[in-house]
Structure formats: C-alpha cells, structure tokens
Design a protein that fits this description.
single chain, mainly alpha, three-stranded antiparallel sheet, 3 strands
C-alpha cells in the first residue's frame, strides 16, 4: 500500500506542472498578440503619415504648377502688351514720317513759297477737301490751284492714298476720281453677286454705284467759293485801278 501512495503523489506533481505550463503559454500568446497589435498600430500610423505627406507634397506641387502657369500667363500678357505698344509706336512713327514727307513735297517751287511756309497742315486739308468735294478733278487744274506741277499733284494723291486720306482711281483722260470706301465696298459686293461680267457691264455698274458729281450741298459750297473768289479778284482790280 505504501508504494501505491507514492505513485499518486508523483501523479499530482505531474498535473501541477502541466497546469503551470498552460498558464504560461496563454500569457505568452496574449503578449504576442498585444505586441502584434502594437506593431500594426505603428504600421498604420506610419502609413497614415506617409499618405498625409504624399497628399501635402502633391498639393504643394499642384500649387507650384498653378503659380507657374499664372506667372507664364502674366509674362505672356506683358510681352504681348509690349509688342502691341511697339507696333503702335512704329506705325505712328511711319505715319508721321509719311506725313512729314508729304508736307515737304507740298512746298511750292517759286511764287508763294514764303506764303506757304508754316501752313502745310492747312494745305493738306485743303488739298484733300478740294478733291473730295468735287469728286472728279482734272489733274492739271488741281496742280494749278495749288501751284505745283501736275506730276507733283499725282505724287501727292498717291501719298495721301497710302496714308488712307484719299481713295480713288486715275483715268486715262488726266482726271482723278475720288471713290469713298462705302462706294468701293458696294462695287465689290456687286461684283461678287454678278460673277464674271464684260467691260461694258462693269462700267455701267460703276457709274451706277459711284457718284461722279458733287452733292447738292457741295455744289452750293462750290458756288459760294467761286463767288468769294470773284469778289476778291474784283476788289483787287479796284485797288490796282488808278
């Protein structure tokens, strides 16, 4: 019997050892799980930081690109304005050169040169107005009116056409026909509608669309000018009479 009691004691010790080992295993597993969760949280936080940094970097890059585009647009606008300003100034300079050249060409050769000095601006206006009012002018008469050679009068008209002050055509009878821009447009529109036409139809169409005589108002004005000139001549003759 004593031997049997010894065996029971050994069995109890074995059971106690197994129980202690089981508690330790569970604690280890809990610690490992806790450590895993801790590592997962760290990994998640790290991923969130990375994602946040990427978003901030992308936002900064987008803002930089936007700012660069705005700067490029502003630079283009400033360059365009500078080019437009330069083009305007160049055009004004060329127009002034053309005008100055025209004025210099307008000087008379002999009589009346001193009288014409300092009156070029008015002479240009009178020259243009003389043609526009009459619509059709004889080039020799025009040259005589403004005390210049006929070739010089033709040069003046061509210069004024380049400046946009006059528009018209020279005919083969020594005349210049002033044609307004509206009349030119009307002829162009008529030609587009008609298509191919012969010379007779073209002449007939132009005669119908282009006014070749002064308006009634201009006729009255010309009559007054003629009357004033006649009165001035009469007064001059009276003063010269003994």
């Amino acid at each position: 019997d004593g031997g049997g009691g010894g065996d029971e004691s050994e069995d109890d010790d074995d059971d106690g050892g197994d129980a202690g080992g089981g508690d330790g295993g569970r604690a280890g597993r809990r610690g490992a799980q806790k450590e895993n969760r801790k590592q997962e949280r760290k990994a998640q936080q790290h991923a969130e930081r990375e994602a946040r940094q990427q978003r901030e970097t992308a936002k900064a890059e987008k803002q930089t690109k936007l700012s660069q585009r705005q700067q490029d647009k502003e630079a283009e606008r400033l360059q365009r304005e500078a080019e437009e300003k330069h083009a305007r100034e160049e055009k004004e300079r060329q127009e002034q050169e053309e005008f100055d050249k025209w004025k210099n060409l307008f000087a008379v050769d002999a009589e009346g040169e001193a009288e014409a000095a300092g009156q070029d601006e008015g002479a240009v206006g009178r020259f243009v107005d003389h043609i526009k009012v009459r619509k059709v002018v004889n080039l020799e008469d025009l040259a005589a009116e403004f005390r210049m050679r006929t070739t010089a009068a033709i040069d003046r008209i061509e210069q004024l056409e380049k400046m946009g002050r006059l528009s018209g055509i020279f005919d083969d009878r020594g005349k210049y026909i002033y044609i307004t821009m509206e009349e030119m447009q009307a002829v162009a529109d008529w030609l587009r509608r008609k298509g191919r036409i012969n010379r007779a139809d073209l002449v007939a169409g132009c005669n119908r669309l282009i006014r070749l005589a002064p308006t009634q108002e201009d006729k009255v004005r010309l009559e007054r000018e003629a009357q004033s000139a006649a009165e001035a001549l009469e007064e001059a003759g009276t003063e010269d009479a003994p």
